[in-house]
Specification:
This protein is mostly helical and about 80 residues long. The chain has a domain of about 55 residues. It contains 2 helices and no strands.
């Protein structure tokens, strides 16, 4: 029985995206390599966005009040 390949964590995906951005900012690689890196960066960015949206939906479900309506509470950090 094969296990499905587990997707990398959000943090790992974000680190990989940051690495690509740093490499592209240097501009030291050939244009074709930059284009491939850019394409990969876009895919990673979309993956991060999708994961963040999923988390947002889960948080909304967890914060629903008993009448099934969402309430928002501003986040304040306690010193």
């Amino acid at each position: 029985m094969k296990k499905e390949a587990q997707a990398p964590s959000f943090e790992r995906t974000l680190k990989e995206l940051e690495k690509i951005v740093n490499e592209l900012e240097k501009g030291e690689t050939p244009l074709e390599a930059q284009l491939k890196s850019f394409e990969k960066g876009i895919a990673l960015s979309r993956e991060c966005l999708t994961r963040l949206e999923e988390v947002e939906k889960r948080v909304e479900l967890l914060t629903r009040n008993p009448q099934s309506s969402l309430g928002t509470t501003p986040f304040t950090e306690k010193p």
